[in-house]
Description:
Blueprint: H1 3-9, H2 50-63, E1 67-71, H3 74-82, E2 90-94, H4 99-109, E3 115-119, H5 124-130, E4 135-141, H6 153-162, E5 166-170, H7 175-178, E6 188-192, E7 206-210, H8 213-226, H9 232-242, H10 245-265, E8 269-273, H11 283-289, E9 296-301, H12 305-314, E10 319-320, E11 330-332, H13 344-350, E12 356-360, H14 366-378
Parallel strand pairs: 2-3, 2-4, 4-5, 5-6, 10-11
Antiparallel strand pairs: 1-7, 6-7, 8-9, 9-12, 11-12
Helix pairs in contact: 1-2, 2-9, 3-4, 12-14
Bound molecules: pyridoxal-5'-phosphate.
The site of pyridoxal-5'-phosphate has 17 residues, from helix 3 and helix 4.
Amino acid sequence: MRFQTKSVHTGVHKDQQYNSVITPIYPSSTFYWDDLEKTSGYDYTRSGNPTRDALQENLAALEGGVGCVATSTGMAAVHCAMSLFGPDDHLVVPADVYGGTFRLISRFLVEKGMTFTFVDMTDLDSVRSAVNSKTRGIWIETPSNPMMKVIDLAAVAQIGEQSGLLTLCDNTFLSPYLQRPFEFGIDVVVHSTTKYINGHSDVVGGAVIAKDEELAERIGWICNAAGMACSPFDAWLVLRGVKTLGCRMEAQERSAHRLAEWLETHPAVERVYYPGLESHPQHALARQQQDGFGAMLSFDVREGRPVAERVCMKTKLFDVGVSLGGIESLISFPVTMSHASMSEEGRAAAGITDRTVRVSVGLEHPDDLIADLQQAFEGS
Ligand SMILES: *Cc1c(COP(=O)(O)O)cnc(C)c1O
């Protein structure tokens, strides 16, 4: 089955009593036993729930993994995956890792005894030289937020394999429709389903997907023991959302590509960061490992912060907001929003300046989005 068919046909036909086409929500905390030895397969919703299982089957199939846990948030998924490691373990992570992941690492996991080295993962030598005798894993995020750096999945997976490390990839920005890290040798895939997978900006959720049975079992154990799983209601919404992932991604990507090309020719714009542009430093790599370029882009305005702020505030169709991957377009100013908690030096190292604007392109007609941005640039 091809992707779109899998996304519609996996995790359905679960209701043998009434044959509902759509998997029902089972909002039951507990399930009665047939006798003192035998359950229906479910006994308690933290440990397992039919609606959540349907979503997990679906996401595992889309990523090409063998097991999945659907968590209450994307950060719960990150925490679940990080819990594969213990005190004294060292991980190599991208310098521009997602802000919430950075907070979990620097203010929580470090206190539990883990150590981390932050590197620019577009430089494979710096990944190699960050590996030491305590290193147990490499965390990847590609494309990165908000500068859209593309990391070579196969090359990093190979570094991991040579040193016996676990490789983990946060695949939120592209979704499995456009990138499947397992195909490049990655061991664990993490998602914030809040973004493209649910796609409708009405749920926060996450998922961890494993490449093999052993990892799937460990992840399932952690999720149950730590109580990270999502509610049946949220699972049902995400399962509804994921069925349109393919066509949403197609349309949103097409619009983002047009917007990126238009922005690149705009006199007020200095630089556009979008992997689909030939000017993107990792354009060839993106072409090779991705099935498309996604619907996130950033750009630097030529004339500085007042223009960046004006563009954000004068658009009418782009809501000013963090988050991404929804049907509605969003615009944000990373310096005061998503990356406000990052140090000035950290931002500078990542290339984020007070002239950088980030856009998540939604499902509106691209002509309307371009006209709206045009009037925002002109507006005074
Ligand atoms: C949003 C996001 C997360 C965290 O997900 P939540 O659902 O907000 O907890 C993790 N990684 C990336 C890349 C994200 O964009």
